[in-house]
Design a protein that fits this description.
The complex is a heterodimer of chains A (799) and B (112). Chain A is 71% helix and 2% strand. Chain A has four domains: 559 residues, no CATH class; 26 residues, no CATH class; 153 residues, Four Helix Bundle (Hemerythrin (Met), subunit A) (Up-down Bundle); 47 residues. Chain B has one domain: Helix Hairpins (Orthogonal Bundle), CATH 1.10.287.3510. Helix content of chain B is 73%, strand content 0%. Chain B is built from four helices and no strands. In chain B, helix 1 runs antiparallel to helix 2. The longest helix of chain B has 32 residues. Classes of the chains: A mainly alpha (799), B mainly alpha (112). Chains A and B meet through helix 25, helix 26, helix 27, helix 28 and helix 29 of A and helix 1, helix 2, helix 3 and helix 4 of B.
C-alpha cells in the first residue's frame, strides 16, 4: 500500500514547489524539498528487514481491466537497491543544490523537475506492469531533458538535452515494442508473471526480437557503446543534476532493466554475449576516452560511461549462471552478478561524491579545466580528502569500497573462462585489465592534476581566494565519503541486508538466496585478481607518468575517431537539410500552399480512380428529368462560367446571387423544401453582406497574372472538377449499402412531422448545437473585426 | 438527373477552384461560396434524387426522399454562411488596416 504513495509523493510535491516560490525565500526552497526524499528513504529503510527475510511486497491498483493494465507495484530486493539510491542520493543532492545553485536561478523550476524525476524514477523501479514502467521510463527521459536544458539560454545545453532525449527516447520506443512482443508471447503485462513463464519462452519466435529491443532500451538509457555519446553532452546540466541523474540513478535504469530481465532472458547465449561484450566495449571505450579529456566533468562523464559498462558486463557474466551447460559451477557466475550489484552501489557513492567535488572546485575557482588547475590540496584539504577517497575507490585501491568490487570484477573476468564458449577465453580478462589500467590513469589525473602540482595563478582564483567551501556544501560529499570508506570495512552488512534480496530477485530459481551471496573479504590471498591489481597499479603508474608522451595517439586514427561524428553527420545534417528544403517550399504564399493541396488531391484521386476504374459507371438508377430542370441547370452553368469573366465585382456578386437562388430552386424541385427555405434566407443575407463590403473594398483590378500561371491554375481547376465528377459518378453507380435514413423515416412514421427537422433537433442535436456555436463564434469574430479599434499608429500590425 | 447534377457540380468546382487560386480577396471569397454550393448539390445527388415525396410525414404516400443528406446540407449551409460572413469582414478589416486587397500586397506588407 505504501509503495504507490512513495511514487506519488514526489509528483504531488513537484506540483506545489513552484507556488512555494512566493512564500519561501528562494534560497530556502531546497530545505522545504529536502524532507521529501528523506521521508521516502526512511520508509524504504523500514522495509529492509522484511526483504532481508525473503519477503516481497506487491500492491495492485486495478486500472484497465479489459486491457490487463494495472498500476502494480512490486517491491523486491532489486528495486530496493535502486529505490535506496534514488531517495538517498536524492536527499544529498537536494542538500548540495541548496548551496550550489545561486538564489538568482529559477530554483522553483529546478526542484520541480528534480522531484518529477524522482517520482518517475521510483515509478520505473517499482512498477511491475511493463506498460506503466514504460511510461515512467519516458518520464525520466523527459525530466532529464528538462534538467539538462535547465540553463536553456545556452545553446550547448539545449543541444545536449536534445541529443539525450533523441537517443534515450528512441531506445525507449524500441523497448516498448519489445514489451508488446513479450505480451504477445505471455499474454500478461506483469513482469513477475512473465518470469513465472520464463521456461516456455525461448522457443518462441518473438523471443530474440523482444530481447534485442529491450536491450536497445537498456543500452541507450545506460549510455552503452555506441549510444554513450549523449552522456558527455548531458554534462551541460547543473552539477547536482549530473551527480544525481547522470551518474547515480537514471543511467542505472538500463542496468536495472537488464538485471530485472535476467530471469527471463538469462538462459540465452545471445543475451550473455550481447550484454557482456557491449559492457566490456563500453568499459574500454569509455575509459580510453576519459583519459584524453581536459574538462574534469567530461572526464567524469566518460568514466561514468565506462563504469556503467563494467556493471553491465558483470550482469552479463552473471546471467551465464542460467546457461544450460552441464557441470557448470554456477557459483562463479552468480558471484559476478553479485559483484555487479555491489559495484552499482559503490559507483553511486564514489561517483556522486566526485561529481560534487568537481562542482565545488568549479564553484570556488570558476573553472574545471585541469590545464588551469593544480596545487589545490593545500587550500582545500577536506575537498581534497573526499576527492582522494572517491578517485582511489574508482581506481580500485584499498581501503575504499571500489577495491572490493573491482577485485570481484577481475576475479569474475578470469573465472568466466570456465564457460566453454567460443571467443571469451582471453578477451574478457584482457579487456577488463586494459580498461582497469586506463581507469587507474584517469583517476590519478583527477587527484594529481587538480590537487597537486604547480599552483596556477589565474585572476579569478586570486580574487575568490581558494578555500574549502562552507560546511553545508561539503556535507553531502562527506556523507558519501563515509560510505566509500565504511563499505570497505563492513561490506557484508550491505551484502546481507540489501544485496541478498536483490540476488533472490535475479535468480528466483534458487530457493535460498543466502548461498548466492559470497562473503566479501578485503584480503583473499594471492589470487589472480590480486596479481592483476598489482599489475594495474604498476602499469597505470608508468602510463600516468609518461602521459604527456603517449597522449599523442589520440590524434591518430582509429584512436581519434568519435561516435559523435556519426551523430553529427546524421542528425545535424538531416536537420540542416530539412530546414533548407522547408524554406524552399514554405514560401508564405497562400496561393502556393493551395496549389500543393490540390496537386496532392489530384494525384491521390487519379491513382484511386485508375485503381477502381473497372467498377465503372452505372446510370440506370438516374431519376427522370424535365425541361424546366434543364433550364435551371443551364442557368447555373452559365452564371458560374460568367463569374470568371465578370469585368466588375458588382456583376460577379450578382452572378453569385443568381447561383445561390437557382440552387434554392433546384432544392424545391429535388424535394427538399427545408433546404430551399434556408438557402433563400441565407443567400439573401449573403448577397446583402457582399454588397455592404462592396462599399468599403476597392474595385478589383484586372489580375496581373502571368499567362503561364493562368494556364496552370486553369488546368488544376479543370482537373479537380473532372475528378470530382468521375468520383461522384463512380460512387453513385456502386451503392454498397442500404441508406440508413429509412430508420429515421420509420421512427417518424409513428409521430408524424418533418423528418429533416427531427434529425437536426433530436437525433443529431449535439451537432446542431455545435453548429450554433460555430455561428456564434463567427458572429463574435465579425463583431470584433468591425468594432475593435486597430492599434494606434495605423499600419502597425503584428508580425 | 443525378448525372447532369454531378456534371453541374464539376463545373462549379472548376470555377470555384480557379477563383480560389487567384489573389484578390473578393475572388477568393466568391470561390469559397461557389464551392459550398457545389458541395451541397453533390451531397444531395449522392442520396439519390426524386425518389419519393418531400420528407414531411403529413403528406400522403409512404416513400420519401433521403432525409439524411438534407439534414447534413442544412447544417452545411448555415456554417458556410458563417464562414463567408467572417471572411468578408476579415477582408474589410485587412483592407482598412493595411490597405491590402489581395494576398500578395498583404504579404509584402508583412515582409517589410
Amino acid at each position: 500500500m505504501i509503495i504507490p504513495l512513495l511514487i506519488l509523493l514526489p509528483f504531488a510535491a513537484s506540483l506545489f514547489v513552484p507556488s512555494l516560490y512566493t512564500y519561501v525565500h528562494s534560497k530556502k526552497i531546497g530545505w522545504v524539498v529536502m524532507p521529501i526524499p528523506l521521508i521516502l528513504f526512511t520508509v524504504l529503510c523500514l522495509h529492509i528487514p522484511k526483504l532481508a527475510a525473503g519477503g516481497t511486497e506487491a500492491f495492485t491498483i486495478r486500472w484497465l481491466n479489459d486491457a490487463g493494465i494495472h498500476f502494480t507495484t512490486h517491491l523486491d530486493g532489486l528495486s530496493m537497491i535502486l529505490g535506496l539510491l534514488i531517495t538517498g542520493v536524492g536527499t544529498l543532492v537536494v542538500i548540495y543544490s541548496t548551496y550550489y545553485l545561486s538564489e538568482r536561478e529559477a530554483l522553483g523550476r529546478f526542484y520541480m523537475y528534480l522531484l518529477l524525476f524522482m517520482g518517475s524514477m521510483l515509478g520505473v523501479v517499482f512498477s511491475d506492469n511493463v506498460l506503466v514502467l514504460y511510461v515512467f521510463w519516458e518520464l525520466t527521459s523527459v525530466s532529464s531533458f528538462l534538467l539538462i536544458a535547465f540553463w536553456h539560454q545556452r545553446k550547448r545545453s539545449r543541444d545536449g538535452a536534445k541529443k539525450a532525449m533523441l537517443i534515450t527516447v528512441t531506445g525507449g520506443i524500441g523497448m516498448l515494442i519489445g514489451f508488446l512482443m513479450l505480451h504477445a508471447m505471455t499474454g500478461t503485462f506483469s513482469i513477475q508473471a512473465m518470469i513465472g513463464m520464463a521456461g516456455t519462452l525461448p522457443s518462441h519466435e518473438l523471443f530474440v526480437p523482444a530481447m534485442l529491443l529491450i536491450l536497445l532500451g537498456a543500452f541507450t538509457k545506460s549510455a552503452q557503446f555506441p549510444f554513450h555519446i549523449w552522456l558527455p553532452d548531458a554534462m551541460e546540466a547543473p552539477t547536482p543534476v549530473s551527480a544525481y541523474l547522470h551518474s547515480a540513478t537514471m543511467v542505472k535504469a538500463g542496468i536495472y532493466l537488464v538485471a530485472r530481465f535476467i530471469p527471463l532472458f538469462g538462459g540465452s547465449e545471445l543475451w550473455f554475449y550481447l550484454v557482456t561484450f557491449t559492457g566490456l566495449l563500453t568499459l574500454l571505450w569509455g575509459s580510453f576516452n576519459a583519459v584524453r579529456q581536459n574538462d574534469l566533468k567530461a572526464l567524469l562523464a566518460y568514466s561514468t560511461v565506462s563504469q556503467l559498462g563494467l556493471i553491465m558486463s558483470l550482469l552479463g557474466m552473471g546471467s551465464a549462471a542460467m546457461l544450460d551447460i552441464p557441470g557448470l559451477d554456477t557459483a562463479v557466475f552468480t558471484a559476478a552478478a553479485f559483484a555487479g550489484l555491489f559495484h552499482l552501489v559503490n559507483h553511486s557513492t564514489f561517483k556522486g561524491a566526485l561529481f560534487m567535488i568537481i562542482g565545488i572546485v568549479d564553484h570556488e575557482l570558476g573553472t574545471r579545466d585541469i590545464r588551469r588547475l593544480g596545487g589545490l590540496a593545500v587550500f582545500m584539504p577536506i575537498t581534497f580528502s573526499i576527492a582522494l577517497a572517491g578517485s582511489f575507490s574508482m581506481a580500485g585501491l584499498p581501503p575504499f569500497n571500489g577495491f572490493l568490487s573491482k577485485e570481484m570484477f577481475l576475479e569474475a573476468s578470469v573465472a568466466v573462462r570456465e564457460l566453454s564458449l567460443p571467443g571469451i577465453g582471453v578477451w574478457i580478462p584482457a579487456a577488463a585489465w586494459i580498461a582497469s589500467v586506463l581507469t587507474f590513469v584517469y583517476c590519478m589525473i583527477i587527484v594529481f592534476q587538480t590537487f597537486f602540482g604547480r599552483q596556477q595563478q589565474t585572476p579569478a582564483w586570486v580574487d575568490r581566494g581558494a578555500h574549502d567551501p562552507q560546511f553545508g556544501m561539503l556535507a553531502a560529499p562527506s556523507i558519501l565519503g563515509l560510505f566509500i570508506v565504511g563499505l570497505f570495512f563492513f561490506p557484508n552488512v550491505l551484502g546481507r541486508w540489501v544485496l541478498q534480496p536483490a540476488m533472490a530477485a535475479i535468480y528466483p530459481a534458487y530457493g535460498d538466496a543466502s548461498q548466492l551471496v559470497p562473503h566479501i573479504r578485503a584480503w583473499h590471498g594471492f589470487s589472480p585478481a590480486l596479481w592483476m591489481t598489482l599489475g594495474i597499479i604498476a602499469v597505470g603508474a608508468v602510463l600516468y607518468i609518461f602521459l604527456r608522451q603517449w597522449r599523442v595517439i589520440y590524434t591518430i586514427p582509429p584512436f581519434s575517431w568519435r561516435i559523435d561524428t556519426l551523430y553529427n553527420l546524421w542528425i545535424v545534417q538531416l536537420e540542416g537539410n530539412s530546414r533548407h528544403l522547408t524554406k524552399r517550399y514554405m514560401t508564405g504564399h497562400l496561393h502556393r500552399y493551395f496549389v500543393y493541396i490540390l496537386l496532392f488531391f489530384i494525384a491521390v484521386m487519379t491513382a484511386g480512380v485508375s485503381f477502381i476504374w473497372k467498377r465503372a459507371f452505372n446510370f440506370s438508377g438516374d431519376a427522370p428529368i424535365t425541361v424546366n430542370e434543364y433550364v435551371l441547370i443551364a442557368v447555373m452553368m452559365t452564371a458560374a462560367i460568367a463569374v470568371l469573366f465578370a469585368k466588375s465585382r458588382l456583376i460577379a456578386i450578382l452572378l453569385n446571387g443568381v447561383l445561390g437562388f437557382t440552387v434554392a430552386f433546384l432544392f424545391v424541385v429535388l424535394r427538399a423544401p427545408d433546404l430551399a427555405l434556408t438557402q433563400i434566407v441565407v443567400e439573401t443575407v449573403t448577397t446583402v453582406l457582399f454588397l455592404l463590403t462592396f462599399r468599403f473594398l476597392p474595385d478589383w483590378k484586372k489580375e496581373r497574372t502571368a499567362k503561364r500561371t493562368k494556364v496552370i491554375n486553369a488546368s488544376i481547376a479543370a482537373a479537380t472538377g473532372m475528378l470530382v465528377i468521375v468520383m461522384a459518378l463512380i460512387v453513385q453507380g456502386n451503392q454498397l449499402f442500404d441508406p440508413i435514413s429509412s430508420y429515421f423515416t420509420d421512427v417518424m412514421e409513428q409521430s408524424g412531422g418533418n423528418i429533416v427537422n427531427a434529425i437536426l433537433g433530436d437525433f443529431r442535436a449535439f451537432d446542431t448545437m455545435l453548429e450554433i456555436v460555430v455561428l456564434l463564434i463567427g458572429g463574435l469574430g465579425v463583431y470584433a473585426l468591425i468594432k475593435l479599434k486597430s492599434r494606434k499608429g495605423g499600419g502597425n500590425y503584428e508580425d | 438527373m443525378e448525372t447532369i447534377i454531378t456534371v453541374l457540380v464539376g463545373v462549379l468546382v472548376m470555377v470555384a477552384v480557379y477563383l480560389l487560386l487567384s489573389r484578390n480577396f473578393l475572388r477568393i471569397i466568391l470561390g469559397s461560396a461557389i464551392l459550398s454550393h457545389a458541395i451541397h448539390l453533390l451531397l444531395l445527388a449522392m442520396g439519390g434524387l426524386k425518389e419519393g415525396n418531400a420528407p414531411l410525414i403529413s403528406e400522403e404516400g409512404s416513400v420519401y426522399s433521403d432525409a439524411l443528406p438534407q439534414a447534413l446540407i442544412l447544417t452545411a449551409i448555415v456554417i458556410s454562411f458563417a464562414v463567408t460572413a467572417f471572411l468578408l469582414v476579415l477582408a474589410y478589416r485587412i483592407y482598412r488596416d493595411t490597405g491590402a486587397d489581395n494576398l500578395d500586397s498583404m504579404r509584402r506588407d508583412f515582409d517589410d
